[in-house]
Amino acid sequence: MISCIINTKNEEANIASCLESITKQSLQDFEIIVVDNNSSDRTKEISRQFTDKVYNKGPERSTQRNFGAKTSKGKWLLFIDADMVLEKGILEACLNLVKKDPEIKAVVIPERSYGIGFWAKVKSFEKSLYLFDQHIEAPRFFDKEVFLSIGGYNEKLIASEDWNLADRLGQNATKVGRISTFINHNEGRISLLSSFRKKFYYGTNIKYYFQASLSPKRYTIFRQSYIRNWKKFVLQPHLGLGFLVLKTFETLGGFLGFVSSLTKQK
User: Fold this and answer.
1) Which secondary structure element, helix H or strand E, spans residue 235, and what is its range?
2) What is the C-alpha separation between 105 and 117, in angstroms, rounded?
3) In sequence order, which residues have a C-beta less than 8 Å from that of residue 219 and are 6 or more positions away?
4) Pairing with 261, which of 58, 92, 232, 238 sits 20 to 30 Å away (CA)?
5) Is the peptide bond before 102 cis (omega within 30 degrees of 0)?
6) What are 6's strand-pairing partners?
């Protein structure tokens, strides 16, 4: 059985679409576990229309996911964000892959984005650059025993916890596979200000990233995937330019968040 674990916080606008995409999977041997973080909207109420396994746990998504994993009954774990929608064959594709090669204990599921407005198109453009980039893509589907044996997600991290987990899987010589079926990520309406604020918040936690010994290649500004996809920049120059602007705002936000955390320590 596959345990589908969804972490939520005020996701009433998205959670129904997410859970419905799970119930419509071609493979039906699964359980749905929703771990909410003190939502003030109808997230829990809507979730209970799909599953009776709705819990409350905080303060961040890593803690929520680990709680869901420990509560689960499945042999396999699939972690999904509430603003994601699964294509129909994802569960079956993951299970077929690990059955075909029993040495595979974690699976990468490719992701593409959609949303409202120009900056959502830019984010979708960015995500398309990262397909098959091993320093960006990280597994979401795990053998439960392996996941728990390496400690699950690092609960000190408020971002990049998926990269940290992938790095620890690598250190543990765990074989990771990849399917071709997509997860669709609803970015909603993105703005430069919201992107800046998000990265600023993540930046305040950056000392824990260093302590977690994340691979430097995870955080490089210039990636080989940009060069590999140079034709996309030529064919869609407006999105390419928007990408440069968006990354500038995000990088600045992360840096200033880091500076802010240093100031608070003094």
Assistant:
1) helix 230-235
2) 38
3) none
4) 58
5) no
6) 34, 80
Instruction: Give the chain's mean pLDDT.
Output: 94
Read off the pLDDT of residues 133-152 as tens digits, 9 standing for 90 and up.
988 999 999 999 999 999 99
Whether the CB-CB separation of 67 and 37 falls below 8 Å is answered with no
* Domains delineated in the chain: 2-265 (3.90.550.10)
Provide the CA 145 distance to its chain's centre, in angstroms: 21
Grouping H, G, I as helix, E, B as strand and the rest as coil, residue 214 is: coil
The closest of 15, 27, 172 to 84, measured between CA atoms, is 15
Q: Which residues contact 93 (CB under 8 A, 6 or more apart)?
A: 179, 180, 181
CB crowding 95-118: b at 16 or more within 10 Å, else e: beebeeeeebbbbbbbbebebeee
